[in-house]
Recover the amino acids of this structure.
C-alpha cells in the first residue's frame, strides 16, 4: 500500500501562537482516517496546511511521494487532494448541478492539442455533465439538481459539497466535519455513504466531533490536543487510551 | 412579474430571437430618418459596451467604474492608426482590441489582489489617468483638440458613408461580442469565472487558478470595449478626451446594473432603455434629468438587483426541459 498523504513534523505558527506543533501523520491508499480533538486543537489548521490554504512554518507535506509543501491550493487540488469546508462553502448563485460542474474543472482540462480540435470542449463538458449526474444520483440528489444549492436543507448541502469534491476525482478526499449539524439518522446515512465511497476506491481523511460516527467508520485515528499529536491508533486503542480520555474529560481525582 | 416574463421569454426563445433578428436587419429600411438611425447605432454600441462590461462586473463580479477608459483607448488607437498610418478598418479594429486588452492586462496584474471597493476605486482612477494622458500627450493624441477627420470605414476600397452601413457594421460587431461572451459563460472558463465571483477561496479549492481566470475575464472584457471604441471613432470621425470621461463609465455601469448584473439580456435591455429614454424625455426639457434620476431610484428600490439580475435564463430553460421530460416520462408509464 502506498502512502497517499504523508505529513512530517508540521509546525504552524501564527505570531506567538503555535497552532500545530510537530505533527506527523500519514494516510495509506484505501483507508478512512479520522482526526479528532477538542475545539481549538488545530484540526482545521492541519487541513489547511495539507491543502495549501496555509504554508506550514516548518515540516513537509507530500502526496504519493511528491513534495507539495508551499504549493498553491489550486495546484494541490489539480494534483489530487479535494476538500470540503467546515462551514459549507457552496457557490450560492449556482444550481446543485453547476456546483458539481465547477468541481469538474480539473477533469475537463484539455491538452494543448485538443484545444484546436473542434468539438472537443463540448464533448468534455457533456461527459462531465453525465458524470456529475451519476454522482448526484449516487447521493440521492439527482431530482434536486436544478435547484439553487443554498436552498437545500442543511444535510443535503453537505452532501453536495462532498459530491463537488468527488467530482475532482481526488486521490484523497478531505472532509472537514461532514456530520456537523446533522441529526442522528442523517449522520448514520452519511456513515454508510462514506463507507461506500471507500469501497469504490476512495481514500478519506476526515475531521469529526461525533465520536460514535468516527469510532464506527475509521480505520485509524489521530488525536490532536492543543496543536500537538497526543495519540494515534485504531478506534479501539484510542477509546481506552488514558491520555486521550484525560484530554477530553480532564484528569481524574 | 419579471419571473413570469423571463419564463415566457425562455419558452418562446427561438421565435423571439428570429423576430428580433428580422426587425434588427430591417430596421434601417423601416426608419430612414438620420436622427433615429444615429440613436439606434449609439444604442447598439452601448449594448456592446454593456455586454463587455457585464463580463467583468456581472460575471466576474469586479465592479468597474473605468470601462470608458478601454473604450477610449480603442478609439484613439483606431483613430491614430487609420489617420496617421492609413490602416484599414479591420486591421485597426483588431489592433484597437489588442491595445485595449494590453491595458486591461496592465491594469489587472497589480490589482488582482484587490477586491470589491478597492478594485472599483482603482478602475475609477485608471479612467482618470487615461483621460489625463489623452489630454496631455499632444504629439500623439492632439490633446484637448481631439482628432478630427478620421477616415471613414472602408472595405476593399468601398468607403462606408451612409448611416445604414454603419448600422449593419455595429449590428455585426454586437452580435459577435454577444456570441463571444455567451460562449465564454457557458464554457469551462465560464464556470470558473462564476465560481470565482461566488467564492474565491472555494474556487481555488476546486483547482481553479483564480488569478489566471480573473486576468482572462478582464482582458477579454477590455478587448471588446476597445473594439467598440474603434467603431466609435471611425463612425463619428472625431474624438476628443471629453468623450471618454468617468461620467461615461458611470453611464455604462448604470446600464449594466439597471438590466441586471450577470445577465446578457439585461445588458441589452438596460443599454436600450437608458439610451432611448433621454431622447424620449426630451419633451420634459429641463426636467429630463430629474425624471431620468427618479426612474432609476424607483427601479433600485423595487428591484435592487436590477431588472433581470436575479434571473438566470439557463436555469429557467433547464427546469422547463426537466419538467417536460418528467411529464413525458409519466405519460408513457
Amino acid at each position: 500500500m502506498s502512502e497517499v498523504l504523508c505529513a512530517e513534523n508540521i509546525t504552524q505558527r501564527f505570531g506567538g501562537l503555535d497552532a500545530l506543533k510537530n505533527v506527523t501523520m500519514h494516510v495509506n491508499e484505501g483507508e478512512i482516517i479520522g482526526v479528532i480533538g477538542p475545539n481549538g486543537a488545530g484540526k482545521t489548521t492541519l487541513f489547511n496546511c495539507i491543502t495549501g490554504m496555509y504554508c506550514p512554518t516548518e515540516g513537509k507535506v507530500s502526496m504519493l511521494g511528491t513534495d507539495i509543501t508551499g504549493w498553491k491550493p489550486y495546484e494541490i487540488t489539480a494534483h489530487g487532494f479535494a476538500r470540503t469546508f467546515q462551514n459549507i462553502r457552496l457557490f450560492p448563485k449556482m444550481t446543485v448541478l453547476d456546483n458539481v460542474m465547477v468541481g469538474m474543472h480539473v477533469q475537463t482540462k484539455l491538452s494543448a492539442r485538443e484545444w484546436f480540435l473542434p468539438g472537443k470542449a463540448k464533448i468534455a463538458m457533456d461527459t462531465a455533465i453525465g458524470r456529475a449526474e451519476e454522482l448526484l444520483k449516487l447521493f440521492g440528489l439527482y431530482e434536486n439538481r436544478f435547484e439553487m444549492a443554498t436552498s437545500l436543507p442543511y444535510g443535503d448541502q453537505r452532501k453536495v459539497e462532498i459530491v463537488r469534491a468527488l467530482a475532482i476525482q481526488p486521490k484523497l478526499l478531505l472532509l472537514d466535519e461532514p456530520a456537523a449539524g446533522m441529526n442522528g439518522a442523517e449522520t448514520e446515512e452519511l456513515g454508510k455513504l462514506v463507507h461506500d465511497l471507500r469501497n469504490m476506491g476512495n481514500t478519506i481523511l476526515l475531521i469529526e466531533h461525533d465520536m460514535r460516527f468516527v469510532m464506527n467508520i475509521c480505520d485509524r485515528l489521530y488525536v490532536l490536543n492543543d496543536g500537538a499529536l497526543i495519540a494515534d491508533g485504531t478506534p479501539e486503542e484510542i477509546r481506552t487510551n488514558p491520555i486521550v480520555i484525560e484530554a477530553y474529560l480532564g484528569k481524574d481525582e | 412579474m419579471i419571473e413570469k416574463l423571463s419564463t415566457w421569454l425562455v419558452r418562446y426563445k427561438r421565435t423571439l430571437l428570429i423576430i428580433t433578428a428580422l426587425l434588427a436587419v430591417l430596421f434601417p429600411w423601416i426608419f430612414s430618418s438620420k436622427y433615429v438611425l444615429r440613436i439606434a447605432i449609439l444604442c447598439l454600441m452601448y449594448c456592446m459596451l454593456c455586454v463587455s462590461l457585464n463580463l467583468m462586473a456581472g460575471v466576474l463580479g469586479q465592479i468597474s467604474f473605468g470601462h470608458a477608459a478601454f473604450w477610449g483607448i480603442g478609439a484613439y488607437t483606431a483613430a491614430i492608426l487609420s489617420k496617421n498610418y492609413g490602416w484599414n478598418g479591420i486591421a485597426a479594429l483588431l489592433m484597437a482590441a489588442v491595445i485595449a486588452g494590453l491595458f486591461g492586462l496592465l491594469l489587472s496584474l497589480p490589482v488582482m489582489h484587490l477586491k470589491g471597493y478597492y478594485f472599483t476605486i482603482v478602475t475609477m482612477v485608471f479612467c482618470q489617468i487615461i483621460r489625463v494622458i489623452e489630454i496631455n500627450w499632444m504629439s500623439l493624441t492632439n490633446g484637448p483638440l481631439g482628432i478630427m477627420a478620421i477616415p471613414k470605414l472602408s472595405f476593399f476600397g468601398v468607403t462606408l458613408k451612409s448611416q445604414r452601413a454603419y448600422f449593419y457594421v455595429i449590428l455585426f460587431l454586437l452580435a459577435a461580442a454577444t456570441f463571444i461572451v455567451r460562449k465564454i459563460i457557458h464554457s469551462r472558463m465560464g464556470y470558473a469565472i462564476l465560481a470565482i465571483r461566488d467564492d474565491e477561496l472555494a474556487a481555488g479549492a476546486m483547482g481553479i487558478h483564480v488569478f489566471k481566470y480573473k486576468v482572462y475575464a478582464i482582458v477579454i472584457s477590455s478587448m471588446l470595449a476597445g473594439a467598440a471604441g474603434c467603431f466609435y471613432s471611425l463612425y463619428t470621425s472625431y474624438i476628443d478626451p471629453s468623450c471618454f470621461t468617468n461620467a461615461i463609465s458611470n453611464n455604462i455601469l448604470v446600464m449594466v446594473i439597471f438590466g441586471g448584473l450577470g445577465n446578457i439580456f439585461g445588458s441589452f435591455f438596460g443599454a436600450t432603455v437608458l439610451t432611448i429614454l433621454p431622447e424620449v424625455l426630451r419633451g420634459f426639457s429641463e426636467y429630463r434629468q430629474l425624471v431620468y434620476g427618479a426612474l432609476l431610484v424607483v427601479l433600485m428600490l423595487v428591484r435592487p438587483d436590477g431588472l433581470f439580475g436575479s434571473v438566470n435564463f439557463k436555469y429557467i430553460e433547464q427546469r422547463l426541459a426537466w419538467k417536460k421530460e418528467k411529464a413525458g416520462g409519466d405519460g408513457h408509464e
About this structure: The two ends of chain A are 44 Å apart (CA to CA). Strands of chain A lie at 3-14, 17-28, 32-36, 58-63, 66-67, 81-83, 172-176, 204-207, 220-225, 228-233. Residues 174 and 240 of chain A are 26 Å apart (CA to CA).
